[in-house]
Amino acid sequence: MCAWDRCRWSWPARKRKANVIRSRTQLLLKIDRVGRYLVSNGNDIVIERAPEASEDDARVFLLGSVLGALLHQRGVLPLHASAIETMYGAVAFAGQVGHGKSTLAAAFHARGYRVLADDVCAISLDVAGQPLVTPAYPQLNLWADALAHLGESKAALRRTRVLTEKYGLPISDHFSTRPVPLCAVYELNTTNSGPPSLGGVTGSAKMWLLRDNTFRLAFLAGMDNSERYMRMVLAVAQRIRTARVSRPCEPFLLDELADLVERDLRASLGSPPQALKSNSEIL
Amino acid sequence: MGIKARITSIIRRVRRGASQPGVAASAGQSPVETSQSPLKAAIPSPKRTLLSDTTLLQRGKDIPFSQLDDELLAVDAQAGYCYSLNETAGRVWDLIATPMRFDAICSQLRKEYAVDEQTCRREVNVLLQGMLNAGLVQVAE
Q: ipTM of this predicted complex?
């Protein structure tokens, strides 16, 4: 009849030979052959580029880990996710590297949705406690095979880094520039076989889903903002729909996956709010 | 000062801060401290408190629970814990906002839920014992 539970809020263990040095308000990141980044107080980044590093090399880490550290220092929740704007609000696709976050966002972009963020999705709370996604920069970073799925040619695109087969797809035509209320987070997973499937996540499991998909969660341990972060995860979990989506590794079944998400949005969020309906004609 | 020198001096400062446990401790409840010493934080050593009908029970700490789907959830950020209660456990938490006797808690629950007396007393006892051990509930003087 009466059930209760207590969970320890675990932070990822510190690695012994970490390339990160942290204090409560500062973080120093060292990347071999690229350089060092010092992030302070959520408003200051100093970059010392290694002589052999190109600007592209330096940019990849600046827009990744360094941006993550800055957001954590600001008390913003950076989700490891790509996000799009729908008439229900912002929808984020979270998941580990290679599970198809950016590819799925690109598929929705091809369907006419505006893109909000790629890889790092910055979530903050407004005065009423509503989680908002702040738009990032208008580019989707896609692997060569993902471009093939989408029917895009890589010939005209820029590689994000010389060493990686990742390309930047500019999306300035359909990019949102104002903060959008977050309404759902889908965590992407891959399985060996079977059609794409979707299962809702509720209760405390929602919080763990958000925690497990937080970008650079390890940076938070020992930071001034870690308590604020925990309360924020609960506040965000209360306002959104969360679900896990599984898809086969091969074939990707991109269209089926996008259909599945569209159906779930309609089923779980019902008719879209009037205020949003007026300024978005999609979905 | 050049950037390199500036970074080096900051690294030194950061390292010094991190290697002195006294710095973190004197700055109040440091999240690092609590997250790395799990058993020291919120749990006194497990002990059995005998609950009799007349034992007065009340909340041990006033942390706000909020509804998340069909659970009540609270984050005790300082201690680094997350608590979840189902509906009936949440009702008990409501009742002990002011000190309440064990038998009164049980009889109130029996008015609200279809449950026999023995089951009710046993379950409420297990719940309160657990919450007592976690410091969430205390025996009122």
A: 0.73
